[in-house]
Amino acid sequence: MNRKTKPWIDDSDPLKPYYGKLNNKEYTDISKIFTLWINHHNYIKPSIIANNKKVNLLDYSDHYNEKCSQNLYQLLCETLNKTDSYLYWLPINNAKNDNIFATYSPAMIAKTPIETKYLNYASRSFLQMQNGGYAIIESNQNFIALVVDGYYMQVALHSHFMDGKFKKYLDNWNEIEKNLDETTAQCLLEAYSVQ
Fold first, then answer.
1. What is the pLDDT along the chain (195 residues), one digit of tens a residue?
2. How many Å apart are CA 5 and CA 60, to the nearest integer?
3. Quick check: 94 and 103 in contact, CB under 8 A?
4. Distances (CA, A) of 106 to 16, 101, 184
5. What is the DSSP string of the chain?
6. CA 61 to chain centre
7. Contact between residue 33 and residue 144 where contact means Cβ atoms under 8 Å apart
8. Alpha-carbon separation of residue 54 from 40, 77, 79, 154 (angstroms)
């Protein structure tokens, strides 16, 4: 395996201060979660979401919102920012069981507080440039998200957080073909499951 070592983290990477912050247990736990939930897909499988008592939400990129390009992410931050949890950011894979984050030392996983600004950091980071998207794992597994930058964000949200303010993100599944190009829409339809 070709392990890329320091200084792979470029000085201009906005997530630079947040790499290399995981202890061994965190790394092992996050790796397992990532492999189960994301692996080499650009969507989260509905069967995994259902089996883990989560709700399948979808948001489209909002290029007009200067504060945050994903309204759902902003809402998640507002809902969870008073908790004692963190967010882990990882690049998505393009090959099954080939965790690209593990080929780097330190691992290409950023650990941040739950704040809106970090989505913008991630979209300008080296981890986003790997495959055009990234996963976000909340440390208590209240949500797991996959972002295909500039297109959409799929979120598996723990059902106990589900209330009226998240309903539109359930309804967004009916708008796939209206909001995405044909190729992206076809791929994402595989992640759709009637709620």
1. 456 666 678 889 999 999 999 999 999 999 999 988 887 778 888 889 989 999 999 999 776 666 777 889 999 999 998 888 999 999 987 766 678 888 888 899 999 999 999 999 998 898 888 878 899 999 999 999 999 877 899 999 999 999 999 999 999 999 998 988 888 888 888 777 544
2. 35
3. no
4. 11, 9, 32
5. ---EETT-S-TT-TTGGGBT---HHHHHHHHHHHHHHTTT-SS--HHHHHHTTEEEEEEE--TT-SS-S-HHHHHHHHHHTTSS--EEEEEPPSSTT--GGGGEES-S-EEE-S-THHHHHHHTSHHHHHHSEEEEEETTSSEEEEEETTTEEEEEEEGGG--GGGHHHHHGGGGHHHHS-HHHHHHHHTT----
6. 13
7. yes
8. 20, 17, 16, 12
